[in-house]
Amino acid sequence: MSWDELVVENISLTFNKGRANEYRALENATMKVRRGEFYCLLGPSGCGKSTILNLIAGFAQPDSGVVRMDRQRIVDAGTERVMVFQDASSALFPWLRTHQNVEFGLTVQGLSTAGAAKRAMSYLDLVGLKEHAHKFPYELSGGMKQRCQLARALVLEPEILLMDEPFAALDAISKRIMQKELLRIWQQYRMTVVYITHDVNEAVLLAQRVAVMCRGPGSTIKEEFEIDQSYPRRLTDGAVSKILEQIEASLEAEVGSSLYAD
Amino acid sequence: MPTNLHNILRHMAIATVSITFAIFCWALFAANFAYPDLVPSPSDTFMTATGMIRSGDLFVHVGVSLERVLVGYLVGCILGVLIGALIGRIKIVGQFAEPLLQLMRPISPVALVPLSIIWFGIGDMSRYFIIFYGVVIIMIMNTAAGVSATPNIRLNAARCLGASRQQIFRRIIIPSAVPYILTGMRVSLGFAFMGIVAAEMIAAQSGIGYLIMQSRMLLRTDIMFVGLVTLGVLGAVIDGVFKLAIDRTMRRYMEYQVNI
Predict the structure, then answer these.
(1) Contact criterion met (CB < 8 Å) for A109 and B162
(2) ipTM of the complex
(3) Are strands A192-197 and A160-164 parallel, antiparallel or unpaired?
(4) Domains of chain A (ranges, CATH numbers)
(5) pTM, whole model, 2 decimals?
(6) Residue in B47, B104, B55, B67 with CA at minimum distance from that of residue B223
(7) What's the CA gap between B87 and B27, in Å, rounded?
(8) I need a surface site. Which of A96, A177, B35, B120 has the fewest CB within 10 A?
(9) What's the rounded Cα separation, in Å, for the pair B123 and B129?
């Protein structure tokens, strides 16, 4: 599949239309992601980050506006856009072993079990789960579960990897290890990544471009920041911390208070 | 594992004590406060039981009842899972069936005995139906609950991994409901046993339920007690075997229920 740009164009979406709990999540939100880019959506909780990601995944359709890859509209889920979810316990298939979870996307397409097993194993190796391939998800730690989700997505060689706060539930150390691993894999495969987080540090460490969203209801993309810094980045590095401060200032305006303790 | 064995032994010891205690109370009550014809002593009951075991009568009754339970139970489980899956999956079918199920749930199998005789006659078909009825309602409700409790995230994950609607149903939704289905199977097995006596009220010539009913005519409370104890023991043993089998083979389905 050849394409250059993932475009989210003027999308609006209201939940529970016409009912008491009606909520206008997005209003005329627009963003463009370049092929191969690491793009981060940052915003306060409830601002519609996940909604945009679900629309890109094709899980839902906007009330108005389009989501497209070049000129091809996204109307349904597809294996070229695979999602890694925050809640691994729900997202993984708990009755399947780790390697079977990774093989799932291959076998539903009709690939033989042997062929699927071989490919799955190479991706389990990539994410460092080879030794744990025969464990069930409940036997894996939080970080390992996310590695499993990552392998399950990557084995399909997606064009776009959608990540919905994938490391938000991990402890601080596992989180940093996983960030490093993700960067290593991304630098190797150069797939497009659309990454959601509410953690400014994480956004600055990972992304080439960070989009700050405004607070809901009727949220949209407020501002984008280009981060033209080489990896690995350090938050203490002068240029990096300068961008961090700019992004924080933008976010503070949305949250309506300082992010620093008085 | 030594701790495991220790636990099992401890468990068995406590069970032995509690059963011995119950028999002791029963013996005390029978000897001091009741007519022997109304409350037979444990030893009388035991004598009657050994007589029935030696003659083979008890096994005949147990075999006949087990066959009835098994047929009603299996048909109830299979149909219950199929109907439950439909109800849980298709919203409109669920909304349609919900009030009907709520109306049917309080109707006990016993209440259906007369109707069952008119519909199916006095043969085994009626008895299967009584047991089936107790099982199928539970299985429908549990399966439907399990199917509709499948996390949305899991469905979306399967979608973006390329699974078709049919594959999602077979490979995601049904396995997600397995813990609910197994729980339903265990609960309804108990109900199937409770249905035996009701089922064998219908002109039966053998079976544990028949044995109990028949003893009333002969004022043989000792045989009645043998029947009751047999029902209790059978139910408990089969439930234990069922639980063990689930723990052994379905562990991967049951484990995550605790983790969620």
Answers:
(1) yes
(2) 0.92
(3) parallel
(4) 5-24+36-200+217-221 (3.40.50.300), 233-262 (no CATH)
(5) 0.82
(6) B47
(7) 51
(8) B35
(9) 11
